[in-house]
């Protein structure tokens, strides 16, 4: 077996290795930056890097967090999320949020959406990357060019952009059609092109079926006897473009996930397809019309805030930073230990280079990412869940 630099702590910590530090709590909101802040390396600890000899042969299925082969057990830091808010500001958002046809006793859907988005922005961790795109766009709204770049991008942490986002949300009014067919393909491509391995998400909020401005087809003529049929057909064309774009994002690596929040006027079957193809269906057993988050006509405010709370948790990344320099580490001597709840029975998660169900290294080797069912389990875990990185023992692989 190759000698490993994971013995850097062996001499200094022979009697206290493994479990001296508590694991990170998944519900703690610890964002993480680049994951190396505060992490010690052999240079800054003064610990000798002299290897003490080869590792003992050991059945990896029998190791534990306190195994003798372990040289370090460290808490992880969750990588920050990237989230693009794709928000419908069409004229219908000026309708009453309580379902009244006129004479609103309270706020409009747009007022409620503004308040809910500001609440979301205030609650996300400072390290999150959050962007904003409206449809219709504030200019050139009937062309794909109007959606090439968001109003606010996701390239800076929220600590630097939060005030700008809040100002943009609160100063924008609602008017126009629903050109989601123009906006969604550009939003997906924008997120796909972000040079990061962190969690990539789009949060769609809409209250109506998409209109078709970007297919190149002639607009429907209101004086044509077949006007209604034309509008419905145009909307179906736009829906196909949108679902296709969302599916393209879902096939990316890492995937761009799309959360779909919509009123009944947004066509439930279409919104459900968006959620499924965007890898965000609410439950595994959801049907053709209820995989998305429904915003009730008379309960818009309550439903929107509940949906945003759910998305905030589900948009969390499945990526955790390694507190070690990958240039000085043996990647075959790292294991990941997951505990589903405080006091619960923990287990090792195997490394799966096929990325179907397990963990694998992110590009650059400074973090690991959960894939498949274990990612969903981690994201849905209770606030007492924890992830630990065990250094020094042979990596567990399937089989």
Distance between the termini: 20 Å
CATH architecture type of the largest domain: 3-Layer(aba) Sandwich
What average pLDDT do the residues reach? 80
Structural class by SSE content: alpha/beta
CATH superfamily of the largest domain: von Willebrand factor, type A domain
Backbone shape: elongated
* Unreliable parts: 1-62
Tally of individual helices:
8
Main beta-sheet annotation:
5 strands, antiparallel
Total domains: 2
Remind me, CATH topology of the largest domain? Rossmann fold
Radius of gyration: 24 Å
List keywords for this structure.
399 residues, alpha/beta, disordered N terminus, Rossmann fold, single chain, five-stranded antiparallel β-sheet, 2 domains
Written description of the protein model:
This protein is of the alpha/beta class and about 400 residues long. Helices cover about 25% and strands about 15% of the residues. It contains eight helices and 14 strands. α2 runs antiparallel to α3 and α2 (about 110-125) runs parallel beside α7 (about 300-315). The longest helix has 24 residues, at about 225-250. The two termini are about 20 Å apart. About 45% of the residues are buried.
């Amino acid at each position: 077996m190759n000698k490993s630099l994971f013995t850097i702590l062996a001499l200094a910590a022979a009697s206290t290795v493994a479990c001296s530090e508590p694991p990170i709590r998944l519900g703690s909101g610890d964002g993480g930056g680049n994951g190396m802040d505060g992490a010690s390396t052999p240079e800054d600890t003064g610990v000798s890097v002299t290897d003490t000899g080869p590792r003992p042969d050991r059945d990896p299925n029998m190791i534990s967090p306190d195994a003798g082969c372990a040289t370090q057990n460290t808490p992880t830091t969750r990588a920050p999320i990237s989230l693009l808010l794709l928000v419908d500001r069409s004229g219908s958002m000026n309708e009453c949020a309580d379902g009244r046809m006129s004479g609103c006793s309270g706020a409009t859907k747009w007022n409620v959406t503004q308040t809910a988005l500001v609440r979301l922005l205030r609650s996300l961790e400072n390290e999150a990357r959050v962007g904003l795109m409206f449809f219709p766009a504030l200019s050139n709204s009937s062309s794909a060019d109007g959606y090439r770049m968001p109003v606010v991008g996701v390239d800076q942490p929220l600590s630097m952009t939060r005030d700008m986002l809040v100002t943009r949300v609160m100063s924008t009014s609602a008017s126009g059609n629903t050109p989601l067919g123009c906006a969604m393909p550009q939003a997906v491509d924008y997120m796909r092109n972000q040079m990061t391995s962190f969690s990539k998400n789009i949060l769609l909020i809409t209250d109506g079926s998409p209109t078709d401005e970007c297919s190149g087809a002639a607009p429907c003529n209101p004086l044509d006897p077949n006007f209604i049929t034309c509008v419905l057909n145009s909307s179906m064309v736009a829906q196909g473009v949108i679902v296709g774009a969302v599916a393209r994002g879902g096939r990316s690596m890492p995937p761009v996930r799309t959360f779909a929040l919509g009123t009944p006027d947004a066509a439930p079957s279409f919104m459900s397809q968006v959620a499924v193809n965007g890898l965000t269906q609410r439950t595994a057993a959801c049907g053709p019309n209820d995989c998305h988050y429904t915003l009730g006509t008379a309960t818009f405010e309550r439903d929107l805030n509940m949906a945003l709370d759910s998305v905030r948790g589900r948009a969390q990344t499945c990526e955790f930073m390694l507190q070690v320099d990958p240039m000085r580490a043996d990647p075959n001597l790292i294991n990941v230990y997951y505990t589903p709840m405080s006091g619960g029975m923990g287990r090792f998660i195997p490394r799966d280079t096929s990325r179907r169900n397990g963990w694998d290294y992110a590009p650059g080797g400074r973090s690991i990412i959960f894939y498949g069912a274990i990612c969903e389990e981690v994201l849905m875990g209770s606030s007492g869940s924890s992830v630990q990185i065990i250094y020094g023992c042979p990596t567990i692989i399937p089989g």
